[in-house]
């Protein structure tokens, strides 16, 4: 069970999440869409506690953390949640001082205490899966953005997390490079990886997601399957957003 | 052989020996201790509870704001009047360590702060504790940033060890002074001492270049993609 409940988060005066409830069905992909500042990235980052909510609860697998104003959870409770999630960042955030294969091994060796040779074998299998097996010894800085993001995906799924979080995984990439990342993510989705992603890449959401939630002003305004959300949204805010998004996607398609 | 050259050759071994027995160990030990102190002070300022962070700031402010020579005099000549007697070499070691600690703490603090927040997050996201993220992800990258300014500090320190002559440590420069006292050849001896410091500094510069290459081998960041 993966459930975010009544999540509230403020940055200073600004209330970015106003009590958000979200169930992430296992074996499926949930996409969070919405305009900049809608809170979708913040919501995603509360799921592995990179942002600590002020109120609400987060339940992933056997672990549940409840947040109350002013009470910081135990570090071990935070680790328990984090160790059941993997995360893919907009800007990849590979460790630049480690080779590609060492990036993928890092969590297995440091956090999960796997022996090096076993971790390396597993890391190479994962690199194979994301089409990067020939680059195991390369430094991250020598790779294209799309290649870096594919390595970052391999790193994020290395410890077989219950939930894979993707924060704008294609936004920093050119369309061709984005396409190879979409490819990898959709094959993970087809294998039944549970994912929660924040994106404004309509193609990514339409191709990969089973469920789409539209956020605005720190609240989920509407949610449903992508076909309905993109072709027959019911809330006027969703309608407006989907319209601007498809307009910009078409403009994108024409320039490339 | 011209007498000048002969004098230089004759004094070479006494000077080099003083350098090897006092200057080099003093520099290496006080840099090693000072760097460890600097790391702890940097951590205190970045992550420590407020009183500790304030104490660390006070320490840096005080050491950086007072002359090293005066600090050495306080330790060696001043402290005995309150009953604390320290031999010349350990007194110099304490003085230089405190000095190196203050200056390098600022370098280390800057180097640690220069590592992007996203690297911490990437480490946390794979389940690392704060300590693991520090040791495995942040420090190795910060080292690379810190090598050039730390090399600066080390080279300065090697030359500053000549101040220990003033508190009776028989290091390279004091040895030169002693030879001058019997030969009355200040120009020759002090130039020779200067050249020996230059040799030491050059060795360290070469070492710095190797370290930079070693830590720079992975290339730059490539954060913003494509």
From TrEMBL, chain A:
Read off the InterPro entries from this record: AAA+_ATPase, ABC_ATPase_HisP-typ, ABC_transporter-like_ATP-bd, ABC_transporter-like_CS, MetN_ABC_transporter-like, P-loop_NTPase
- Protein keywords: ATP-binding, Cell membrane, Membrane, Nucleotide-binding, Transport
Name its cellular compartments: Cell membrane
Keyword Glycoprotein in annotation: no
* Membrane topology, as annotated: Peripheral membrane protein
Instruction: Report the residue ranges that make up the ABC transporter domain in this protein.
Output: 2-242
A Pfam family matched in the record: ABC_tran
Give the GO molecular function terms. ATP binding
Tagged with keyword Plastid: no
The cross-references to PANTHER family, in alphabetical order and at most eight, read:
AMINO ACID IMPORT ATP-BINDING PROTEIN (PTHR43166), L-CYSTINE IMPORT ATP-BINDING PROTEIN TCYN (PTHR43166:SF35)
Family according to the record = Belongs to the ABC transporter superfamily.
Could you tell me what this protein is called? Amino acid ABC transporter ATP-binding protein
What is the species of this protein? Fulvimarina uroteuthidis
TrEMBL record, chain B:
What coarse category fits the chief subcellular location reported for this protein?
A: membrane
Provide this UniProt record's keywords sorted from A to Z: Amino-acid transport, Cell membrane, Membrane, Transmembrane, Transmembrane helix, Transport
Give the stretches traversing the membrane: 20-46, 58-79, 187-207
Q: Which InterPro entries match?
A: AA_ABC_transptr_permease_3TM, ArtM/GltK/GlnP/TcyL/YhdX-like, MetI-like, MetI-like_sf
Is Membrane one of the keywords?
Answer: yes
- Classify the source by domain of life: Bacteria
According to the record, the signal peptide region is none
The record's Gene3D superfamilies line, in alphabetical order, gives:
MetI-like
Tell me what topology the record assigns in the membrane.
Multi-pass membrane protein
Keyword Transmembrane recorded: yes
Q: Where in the cell is it found?
A: Cell inner membrane; Cell membrane
Q: Which residues form the ABC transmembrane type-1 domain?
A: 20-208
Task: State the family named in the UniProt similarity comment for this chain.
Answer: Belongs to the binding-protein-dependent transport system permease family. HisMQ subfamily.
- Record PANTHER family: L-CYSTINE TRANSPORT SYSTEM PERMEASE PROTEIN TCYL, MEMBRANE COMPONENT OF AMINO ACID ABC TRANSPORTER
Name it: ABC transporter permease subunit
Species for this entry:
Fulvimarina uroteuthidis
